Amino acid sequence: MEPSLNIRGFRSAYVGEQAQNVVPDRAEASLDARLVKRRRSEGEVAADRGVYSTAGILRSRREPTIEERRTHPKVAKVIEQGGYRASRTRMDLPVSKAIVA
Fold first, then answer.
1. Nearest C-alpha neighbor of 43 from the set 79, 85, 75, 78
2. Distance of CA 44 to the CA centre of its chain
3. Of the N and C termini of the chain, which has fewer Cβ atoms inside 10 Å?
4. pLDDT of residue 47
5. 40 is in which domain, residue-wise?
6. Residue 76 in contact with residue 60, Cβ under 8 Å?
7. With contact defined as beta carbons under 8 Å apart, do 30 and 7 qualify?
């Protein structure tokens, strides 16, 4: 049972009829972190914050300003939406036994 980080969706630039020959100024991703039992989500979020710093990414809770974009080559607007502690379903429950069967 290991934690995981899932990319639920990713969006950037233009496609189809709206396609353009330009480099997009932004990209957007929706991520989902799956934790494991006995690991606290606060610790995982703190570790995640450290990754941004180590990678030289300016991390912001709001839309970055033009000046921030000019002075930092890597900028990320991060919206944390909370979550809940990891749990595990007991394998001796009737529902677990039915799924296994």
1. 85
2. 12
3. C
4. 64
5. 4-100
6. yes
7. yes
Distance in angstroms between the alpha carbons of the first and the last residue of the chain: 21
Instruction: Report how far residue 29's alpha carbon sits from residue 7's, in angstroms, rounded to the nearest whole number.
Output: 7
Of the chain, the percentage scoring pLDDT greater than 70 comes to: 84
Residue 80's Cα: distance from chain center in Å? 9
DSSP strands (E only) in 1-101? 4-12, 27-34, 58-60, 75-77
| Per-residue pLDDT tens over the stretch 66-98 | 999 899 989 988 887 777 777 778 899 999 999
Domain count, the chain: 1
The upper half-sphere exposure of residue 91, i.e. CA atoms within 13 Å in the direction of its Cβ, equals 2
Q: How many residues does the chain have?
A: 101
Find out whether 34 and 69 touch, Cβ atoms under 8 Å.
no
Angle (CA) 34 2 76, round 5°: 45
Write out the two tokens for 26: 């932004």
